Amino acid sequence: MVTENNQTTINPNNMSVVDRVKAPTPKFFKTLRTIGLALAAIGGAILASPVALPAGLVAAAGYVALAGGVVTAVSQTAVDTTNSKTTENETP
Q1: Residue 68 within any structural domain of the chain
Q2: Which of 66, 68, 71, 75 has the fewest Cβ atoms within 10 Å of its own Cβ atom?
Q3: How many domains are there within the chain?
């Protein structure tokens, strides 16, 4: 961390996973995270359906749910380096 003018700049290369999740996320990755959550929800709904569905559709739903979860997790850990300055007493 570098302190300048009562503000702390956090280097994204030295952040832990918890710090990355708590840090501000860029707008593009917020949109991508929302799309990933929607994909995971759709895949989960198809997998949990009480109606008998074709095996291919159930397999595809599993892949869609997995892809949605991965996209959501990766998007959540993206860090906005332009707005990563916080005050000394504020947690990132």
Answers
A1: yes
A2: 66
A3: 1
